Amino acid sequence: MTSTPSSNDVSRRTVLSGLAAVPVLVAPLRLANAQAQTQGAWLQSWNEGPVKASIIEFVARVTTPDGADFVPPGERIAVFDNDGTLWCEQPIYAQVAFASDQIRALAPQHPEWRTKQPFQAVLDQGAEALAAVSQSELLEILAVAHTGITVDAFQKTVLDWITTARHPRFDRPYTDLAYQPMLELLAYLRAHEFKPFIVSGGGIDFMRPWTDKVYGIPPEQAVGSSGKTQFEIGADGKPVLVKLAELEFISDGPGKPAGINRFIGRRPIFAFGNSDGDVPMLQWTTSGPGARFAGIVHHTDAEREWAYDRQSNIGKLNKGLDAAPSNKWAVVDMKNDWKRVFAFQ
Amino acid sequence: MTSTPSSNDVSRRTVLSGLAAVPVLVAPLRLANAQAQTQGAWLQSWNEGPVKASIIEFVARVTTPDGADFVPPGERIAVFDNDGTLWCEQPIYAQVAFASDQIRALAPQHPEWRTKQPFQAVLDQGAEALAAVSQSELLEILAVAHTGITVDAFQKTVLDWITTARHPRFDRPYTDLAYQPMLELLAYLRAHEFKPFIVSGGGIDFMRPWTDKVYGIPPEQAVGSSGKTQFEIGADGKPVLVKLAELEFISDGPGKPAGINRFIGRRPIFAFGNSDGDVPMLQWTTSGPGARFAGIVHHTDAEREWAYDRQSNIGKLNKGLDAAPSNKWAVVDMKNDWKRVFAFQ
């Protein structure tokens, strides 16, 4: 696992979360926070407004010792959707671009794909051919494409792709399209001894190789959809884990609370999503006892990113917008609540 | 999740791991360790010998900055089997006793069990009727018995049972039968910024309610076999997760490396087991690059606990004993390597 980005890499994470990334310095940092906060050193890319205020107010409530809503650090579980919540999901999911590139790269070994859908369509039209497929269909395609390769080899494939592929609109690595305000939110929560998890409908093997470096979220705190693997002793006598074609778990919609229960085993107190696929996760989080926070990233900024919600094919946000007011979920108006969307802007 | 034992409970964990349980004090503690170790303050229930020496030597190697085998704290993943490795698994798995008690408790609502195996046998003969069933058969029985109850209700059932049930031989709560030397090992590893996980063939929902309190291992660091759950909006409009009869994942034998890959996403550098079901986990751990440690608890102490290995129905250790020498796995001779087996002895 030496190719796994380590929690100690010099990375955006350590830059952003600063000393908070080093557990031994949490205490001094925590003392510093009181002043830091009043000086507005946290959440710098967030405009002052009800959403920023509600985040700071919630964190203060659950971290104030002897407060009625105090939550011990070990139980400060925060969950975040990935696509559209932590990074850009338009005009296609990064994983769709990856799948398309993988199909093209592997096509020479699969002549049958020339006449088999959706492979043929991808080879003819590129990633757009996959724009309409569902999360589970996409994972099935990837599972088929990578059947028989080891998890270590797949991890290397993902790392090679994520460091070289570029976003079609911004012409930058996809990892540059992490939302700066959300990275600051992760750092802010870590500094207050929250334990942030990703809970994504995307493939867990596609995320884990880079989430630590980009978000400061280590592999064991990434929950996602997964395919089955098989333990085998290789020809050289070395054990390997081989990817099978069979899907194992889809972590989307109602699968998100199920995935949280299975991977984390505690109900989160803080959750952030951006689409109707996140609604069950927000419901599960905010219906628990005690103080709870849920937020929705509403994409309202066509100029700096994208503007979409109720009718969108990707990241459709319809039920979520309807449910937010009665559930007191904070809705981020990207255009007005975020000073910056990306670090490079 | 308020009934979940919190990481901050005053518990055996905090007593044992002492300040190490508090991340902000890891640094001062680490400095203290250098002296503490030479003063033999760690691993007090371990007799001096090759196994204790190899553990201390390994931890020093991977934690020495600038050392050739240094591993960053974030990557110091340690995995432990539960039954027979962290606590007593004889004369029957605690989970078997739990299942038997549950079948008896639920029998009135299931008249059909009077004529249906294995339920009928349990109602007639008690837990012994389940002694021969496999891990997956046992989980299927539990899944059937608890179909339709919520995960919160099941958690409460487990907590009620674990605090009242008593071990047939020692007449104490099963949680008193955690191995004192292994609790000290967990504390020692935590103090050196290892992240310990349980990887058990047992049901994850049976372990998570108490592993934090007993071992200092929080729910999100417990991997085990699981059944499917379904997200529903209850009659009162509140979301619930309901247990289904269907098994989802068996974390035993080759399923342990698969479970480690799926739940943790990194290859461990340290692993401990006690039976042939743990061999794939030990192979997977020690075949990775860099310094690796694997240990086997060999039950050789009929007087203080039990003596069993190659022919045992429970915790059969045959392949593991054969594989240990060539793989340089440390084999704990319980009788000679452990000063005490249980805290109460």
From TrEMBL, chains A, B:
Query: What's a Pfam family in this record?
Result: HAD
Annotated Gene3D superfamilies: HAD superfamily/HAD-like
Q: Give yes or no: UniProt keyword Ubl conjugation.
A: no
Q: Which SUPFAM superfamilies match?
A: HAD-like (SSF56784)
- Kindly give the InterPro entries that the UniProt entry links to this protein: HAD-like_SerB, HAD-like_sf, HAD_sf, TAT_signal
Stated EC number for the protein is 3.1.3.-
State one molecular function term (GO). hydrolase activity
Q: Could you name the domain of life of the organism this protein comes from? A: Bacteria
User: Which key words tag this protein in UniProt?
Assistant: Hydrolase
Name of the protein in its database record: HAD family hydrolase
- Record organism: Mesorhizobium australafricanum
